[in-house]
Amino acid sequence: MRGAAAAGALAVILAGQAGAGTLDTVKQRGTLACGVSEGLGGFSDKDAQGNWTGFDVDFCRALAAAVLGDPQKVSFTPLSASQRFDALKAAKVDLLSRNSTWTLGREAELGLAFAGITYHDGQGFLARRSLGVDGALALDKAKICVEAGTTSQLNLADFFRANSMSYDEKAFPNAADAFAAFQSGQCDVLSRDQSALYAERLRLTKPADAIVLPDVISKEPLSPVVRNDDFAWFNVVKWVHYALVNAEELGISKANVDEALTSQKPDVRRFTGAEGGFGKALGLDPDWAVRAVKATGSYAEIYERNLGVGSKLGIPRGLNQLWTMGGVLYAPPMR
């Protein structure tokens, strides 16, 4: 009887753990498990001391601050393009914040949910200046390095077929190998998301010998990714992103967020948690959005620090500017 009782108790415990949502799991664990790239300047990169920085890294820190109250309570797992979705589905990470393109196939076929576009990107080309080309339509018969198993590989085939051109594809299992092949001269052109090409160009021995062509051949909406079986967690991840965008719209920054706590403006009071009760609805503390901004700043601060014209990459906001400033960045209201 004692054995049966013990077995029954264990079954109840395991059933409770299996049924626990991701938000509860993260709170109980005390850390957020975030899947990132294996190293992409401006997005997710680890320095010699083991410190992670970048646009995608900052999103994970903002999420950790909102959920756990501490932006340092994050463990980062570097994942290749071929590993990332399997790792997420196997619950090895709580989310991907890893320059991943939102597509119909990935949502419908892989059982994933994309929690809002954090960066509007597009595929481009990094070409050797010695080729003497000034646009993608001049790349007929070029040798092109690309990462296998990515939307970049598929888009490349579509572009050349649509324009009745041919190319010599050099596909590699990961981004590092594709870059190394371009660097060593195995191909004339490297193709991937244009934002990544700005970072890759800086890694070349002679960056001035290569140019990022102006052409964008695809839509690459980059988004955090979660499993599609936990809508409550999906909502948390999605609204942390929207909070960072709303903070920029409201003029709330890391420097002045404490002042927002005394504001009498209704939309600011809802943001800080003084009104609305939205934190409770999400399963978070009332000041969850304030904690996110205190950790990383608003969307504008995250962008400019990691990717903007004042950073090493020097990428203009472009489409990633607020909708009120000529871009397409837009967040639903917090009300």
Question: Can you summarize this structure?
Answer:
With 335 residues, this protein is α/β, with parallel strands linked by helices. It has 14 helices and 14 strands.
- The figure for the number of domains is 2
Rg calc? 22 Å
Helix content: 40-55%
What is the structural class? Answer: alpha/beta
What CATH calls the topology of the largest domain is D-Maltodextrin-Binding Protein, domain 2
- CATH class group of the largest domain: Alpha Beta
Query: What distance separates the N and C termini?
Result: 55 Å
Helices and strands, in order, run as HHEEEHEHEHEEEEHEHEHEEEHHHHHH
Poorly predicted regions are: 1-19
Question: Strands across the major sheet, in which order?
Answer: 10-9-11-8-12
Overall spatial form = globular
- Estimated share of beta-strand residues: 15-25%
Question: Main beta sheet: strand number and arrangement?
Answer: 5 strands, mixed
Q: Examine the secondary-structure arrangement and name the CATH architecture of the largest domain.
A: 3-Layer(aba) Sandwich
Average pLDDT for all residues:
93
CATH homologous superfamily (4th level) name of the largest domain? Periplasmic binding protein-like II
Beta-strand segment tally: 14
Tally of individual helices: 14
